[in-house]
Amino acid sequence: MPTIYYDFGFYLGLAALITGVVTLLDKFWWQKKRIEAGGVEYDEKGREKYPAFIDVCRSFFPIIFAVLVLRSFLFEPYRIPSGSMNPGLYDGDFILVNKFAYGVRLPAFNTKIIDVADPQRGDVVVFHPPHEPQQAYIKRLIGVPGDRLEWDRGTLTIIPQCQNGDDIGGGSCEPMTIKSEFVSDEVEDLVPRGELFNTYKETINDNEHPLIYLDNGVQRVGGNSLNARWTEVVPAGKYFVMGDNRDGSADSREWGFVHEEGIIGKAAYKWIFLTFTDEPVLFGKHLPKGISFSRAGAIK
Question: Which regions form coiled coils (predicted)?
Answer without folding.
Answer: none
